[in-house]
Amino acid sequence: MGFHLPFIFAILSLAVVALANHAAQPAPQLYWNSVLPNTQMPRSISELLHPDSTNEENIVNAVGNGKGKPEIFPLRNRNYVQSHYGVLNRNYVQSHYKKRPPPPENIPFANRKKYALGSPPSDNQLLHYKELAIFFFEKDMRPGATMKFQFPRNSNTATFLPRESAQSIPFSSNKLPEIFNHFSVKPTSVEAKTIKQTIEACEAPGIKGEEKYCATSLESMVDFSTSKLGTRNVEAISTEVLERGATMSMHNYTTMPGLKKLAGDKVVVCHKQNYPYAVFFCHAIKQTAAYVLSLKGDDGEKVKAVTICHLDTSEWNPEHFSFQILKVKPGTVPICHFISTDAVAWVPKHKSA
């Protein structure tokens, strides 16, 4: 039998290309492909991957410019700091839902400061926030229903570090001076305050029935989410703007046909935090339903919106903002909300028939 050299060379060439492509992939993506080969990576995660992230020194150099202030520290959008659960709000750090409810993400920044200092919203403000569909009922997802909302572009651009690199950097309120020094951040700066608040929020206890964890790497987020769901056969899904509208302002959105309920009664949701590298606050809450619905804005914008519905709110503070907006009491009715475009919902996949 003769050797078919052209054929052999072709096979070898393909093998070399495959190895080169494999080597070019960042470590977090390689881990994802290994553990979740059948799970599509959502845009909210893939856009945080860079080939250079395999070199932690490169990222640290990109974060700190040697002048005491990071170049890409994700503080460009102040409204992001007060994300859905107010994870960077001191009220959340104190006791999550048990004390004063966090300000909704649609509140103007000036009003947020007043709210955070203890001034409750007026009746007119509550009416305004209710119109913004910050929280809503399951019935509000029916086709033809309209809600006013805004889906801003992600401004938090901090990227993932490989797990080994992230684990080598302290992430503890007891190690703040070391952390500030590592990222060339002045202890009195706004960036230092944000780092401190993020870590304290991660260390704060969760509410009853909530399992919480701050993932400092994509690998650890994958491990936490799959362990809490009890399977690696999962979907990871995020809210996505499929087609931009004419403007970036607030718009009325109409719910389109095709509401999809995701599998399982337990969902893990991971919210991106403000930090020099990608950190996600993840929590698993029982008796939770997740949906995907299509929205169309009055300016033509199209959104695939991931919605979380909390079926049991009996452990929430009676003064939680959602109860004030919807005028219901804890434990009486499911309460729903969208997740932001930089958050990820993890659910089990539907079993094929």
Automatic annotation (TrEMBL):
Q: What is this protein called?
A: BURP domain-containing protein
Which intervals hold domain BURP? 135-349
User: Would the keyword Secreted be found if you checked this record's keyword annotation?
Assistant: no
Q: Which residues form the signal peptide?
A: 1-20
Per the database entry, which stretches of residues form a coiled coil? none
Protein's organism: Prunus dulcis (Almond)
Q: Provide this UniProt record's keywords sorted from A to Z.
A: Signal
